[in-house]
């Protein structure tokens, strides 16, 4: 078994999707995760801690929780675990968020 065979092939990037990040339109490759799309667009933080420290996606595999964003009104979504979709409304999270969506 070769090492390469242990990994899934990269997603097909045969199109683009558009989503918004804090209300700004962003183009992304179809098949990328939301975290990749945000990093490719801004390279900036996706959230801040309660003390205001900036955080950005780090592990890209659902472990560190540094990639939390609000997606379509739902807070605390791990951007590295979901594919970017056409029309999603994404917002950076600042400070603490509740565990449940109240909206
Ligand atoms: S980047 Fe680590 S959990 Fe998403």
UniProtKB/TrEMBL annotation:
Pfam families: Fer2_4
Protein name from the UniProt record: (2Fe-2S)-binding protein
Origin species: Gymnodinialimonas ceratoperidinii
